[in-house]
Design goal:
Distance between the termini of chain A: 15 Å
CATH superfamily of the largest domain in chain B: NADH:ubiquinone oxidoreductase-like, 20kDa subunit
CATH class of chain A: Mainly Alpha
Distance between the termini of chain B: 64 Å
Order of helices and strands of chain B: EHHEEHEHHEHHHHHHH
CATH architecture of the largest domain in chain B: 3-Layer(aba) Sandwich
Helix content of chain B: 25-40%
Radius of gyration of chain B: 20 Å
Number of domains of chain A: 1
Structural class of chain A: alpha+beta
Number of strands of chain B: 5
Structural class of chain B: alpha/beta
Largest sheet of chain B: 5 strands, parallel
Largest interface: A-B, 67 and 61 residues
Oligomer: heterodimer
CATH superfamily of chain A: Cytochrome-c3 Hydrogenase, chain B
Number of helices of chain A: 15
Number of strands of chain A: 14
CATH class of the largest domain in chain B: Alpha Beta
Order of helices and strands of chain A: EEEHHHHHHEEHHEEEHEEHHHEEEHHHE
Shape of chain A: globular
Helix content of chain A: 40-55%
Shape of chain B: globular
Strand content of chain B: 5-15%
Number of helices of chain B: 12
Chain lengths: 438, 261
Amino acid sequence: MPSKGKSRTIKVDYMARVEGEGALHIKLKDLPDGTVEVRDAKLNIFEPPRFFEAFLRGREWTEAPDITARICGICPVAYQSSSITAMEMIAGVTVPQSIRELRRLIYCGEWIESHVLHLAMLHAPDFLGYDDAIQMAQDHPQVVKDALRLKKLGNDIMTCVGGREIHPIAMKVGGFYKTPTVEELQAFLPELEWGLDAAQALTDLVATFEFPDFERDYEFVAMRHPDEYPLWEGRIVSNKGLDCELAEFFDYIEEEHVRHSTSLHSFIKARGEYHVGPMARFNLNFDQLTPLCQEVAEKYGVAPPVLNPFKSIIIRCVETLWAIEESIRIIKGYTQPDAPSVPVAPRAGRGYGCSEAPRGICFHTYAIDDKGIIQDARIAPPTAQNQKSMESDLALLVPTIGHLDDAALTLKCEQAIRNYDPCISCSCHFLKLEIDRE
Amino acid sequence: MAIRKAPKLAVWKFASCDGCQLSLLDCEDELLAVAGQVQLAYFPEATSAVMKGPYDLSLVEGSITTPHDVKRIQQIRKQSKFLVTIGACATSGGIQALRNFGDVEEYTRYVYAHPEYIETLQQSTPIAQHVFVDFELRGCPINKMQLLEVLNAFLNERKPNIPRYSVCIECKRRGTPCVMVSKGIPCMGPVTQAGCDALCPAYNRGCFGCYGPMEAPNPEALSASWKSMGKDENDLVRAYRTYNAHAEAFQRESERHAQQR
């Protein structure tokens, strides 16, 4: 038990089970009445800066998808999709429906792979009290085996459509270099049918986890498409009045550079911090989910608005199920396009692209000249946008669990950060936990 | 069989995208088997458990870009019996080595509102420029089957069987007609090390050099072919300056064309 009237520093120098390098630093004071006061909660992102926006200048517009994929090995398709659609906006090109469907399919592969990696391998061990999924596998072998099989299914879809799972090579401005045959895609149907059951079984498991009693009135920001659960098309909307076109993004959103992070903090000019990712997407687009996904979510009392970030793990399961259903739909209706791509030519101008990476919206804008050489580039990755929200979660969570000893407190704080499936490599293009009890 | 203590495996990260260490988690069919053969002593992307060094095998991802990392890699080397670098960032500085040809101060001002908060080096450099490296596994990203081969080799104290010939050999083996000859598509395959199974040519596109220079490449001859296909000096500079821009053979050739433009 912490002694009363004492200050404590809790720090995690290098946070585990997140992608990238970051640390937490929390300063708190134990008050005589037994409560704690949080003096400071910071997420230090010390992932070294890599300067993507700077060196994209002078490159060819068609190189952006392959180069920006290298910002993140976990969600390359998000970077490729955002950059490709931004460039296609400049060129004034719309791809045929069959190519659009293939893009949705590879994106579903990435959602399945990334969501299952995070929820089963990185986040579930927190709830079940293990250091990692390999330890967890000793007591829950079938859960881990099924999760690995689901993850592999996502990766296999990415490999089939994109050539390989990390930094796929088949997508380009205008379409694909090569498209899969109907037979190649149909071969996935039996495994996807198994995936429908496996994803529901995973939901059954994670829904039984114990969730801290913690809710916040977030501003959720996600994309919104008139007819579909969003991937990259539509408007950017929130539950507090934001409703803009992609081109207006930086009219409403500002990025701030703070000393303790090599990743820029984003905020809504009018109101401040906001929250992107599965919870935002789910709350803003529940009506666009399939009846099965809605039914599975409602079975566990997960219906919008979900305000407890720890329950994001359930939503990741539901979105995995959605991505499986969507993959089945796409494959059943697929006919191989006559040509893998449509011709594109550069023209001077600026374009905008935004797509729903597994961890939230990934926004890109580029200006190119008439030869297609990139003149200016801006990228707002999802984890950078969530940074302020993550810090506020910590500041609000710690007083509710201040009675815990430092080890237990630290673990809960780490878990609160993992709610966001943060991708620190992305955000700088972030984790170390430090709790300072004054 | 003699009983021995499972070797301690550590995975370290420097400036990178995380993709190469993700390759280990992407070995879905082999992961539990590998985990059964080693002690995951340090692998923060996958586990909170941390064992103290020394480590039998350290896998290092990412390039050196900060003063702090210059010191950190020395510490890691001291604690590691074998040190293997994985991926283009660790073996040649990665895509972020494009700064080596630019002005880092200007880059910092372009990306960050407060350049004074940023501590970074002028160059992004490979691990081997700082410490002795036992083996370099190339690729952006690495091939996970090659990673398993390297793990197997080091855990059994033998040399990894990783060929250093060009992508061309893999195209021939795969039966992909040469995209330069048959389709007139410029390709980096003739100077790029194999390992991806000649992926891009099989997708009707030219290789763009993810695996870096092959052993004894002849980039001058390749550049001449590119020029005969209508590519200019700027195109060639860009072609050699991608994911392995700081690798010696590619760097030299890109500088030659940069001077001629």
